[in-house]
Structures are given as C-alpha cells and as structure tokens.
Amino acid sequence: RSREMAKLTQLIDNEVFQAYATYATIVLLKMMLMSLITAYFRMTRKAFANPEDTASFGKGESAKKYLRIDPDVERVRRGHLNDLENVVPFFGIGLLYALSGPDLYTALLHFRIFAGARITHTFAYLIPLPQPSRGLSWAVGYAVTISMAYKVLKTALYL
Asked: Which GO terms describe its cellular component (predicted)?
C-alpha cells in the first residue's frame, strides 16, 4: 500500500503533471464560466428553455412569452458546447500525454497553446471577433490535442 502512495507522490511531484494540472484547471474553469455567462444572458434577456424557469416572471400564459430562443443566449450556448467538444478530449488526452513522459518544454508548449487557443476562441465567440479568428483558434486547439494524441499513441503503442 505504501508503494502505491509513493507512486502517487511521484506523480504529483512530476513537473509535466503539475503543468497539465494547471492548464487543465484553467480551461475547465473557463468552461464552467461559460455556464454562468449562459445563465446571465438567459436572465438579462428573459429567454428560458423550461417552463419552470419562468415562474418568477409570471404564471400561465403570461410566462409563456419567456419560453423563447434568444440569439445572444444561443451564441453563448454554442460557445459552451464547443468547449465541451474540445476541452473534454484535451482533459483525457492531455492526462495520457502527461503520463507518457514528454519533455517539460514541449508539454508546456502544448498546454499553453491549447489554453490560449480556447480563451481566444471564447473571446472570438462572445465579442464576436471577425472570422477567421474563431475558426483559427479552434483549429489551433484541435491540432494541439491531435499532436498530444499522436505522441501518446507513438509512445504507448509503439506506432
């Protein structure tokens, strides 16, 4: 049992794992922030998806007008969905990558570029910035995840 604890301690002391934990936390918190931004837009635009969410604005027919689709709410939701589609794979693949023994500099480059790309993507979505800024930021983050996946496959499966 103490041998297992020693391995966990070694992992926590590993600089690449610490870098992964740092940047994974940053992008996960950014993704969680998108939920709050969506809620803010729903409240300020009074645009809700569920009847029970309109209860504080009226009853029956008067509340039905708040069951609607708002373009600003939908834009934030699409940004959040895009985070789910990209941060979740980064979280899993990044962990495997961190455990595959990469060079610290290379790992930091991967993690920082991914985090920067996702933050840029969020600003490009919310402001909105002109294209191709959103598309490029998405592509950069996606390419980083593919690069890490390739390294994991090459290291772990000897491809």
From this structure: endoplasmic reticulum membrane; mitochondrial outer membrane
Residue appearing with tokens 């980064």: 90
CATH topology of domain 14-44+70-157: Four Helix Bundle (Hemerythrin (Met), subunit A) (1.20.120)
Q: Which two tokens stand for residue 128?
A: 């909105």
Displacement of CA 80 from its chain's centroid (Å):
8
Q: Where are the domains of the chain?
A: 14-44+70-157
Whether residue 122 has pLDDT greater than 80: yes
Q: Are 141 and 86 in contact (CB under 8 A)?
A: yes
CA distance 110 to 124: 21
* pTM beyond 0.90, yes or no: no
- H or E segment at 85? helix 71-99
Single out the residue of 22, 141, 9 nearest to residue 82, CA to CA: 141
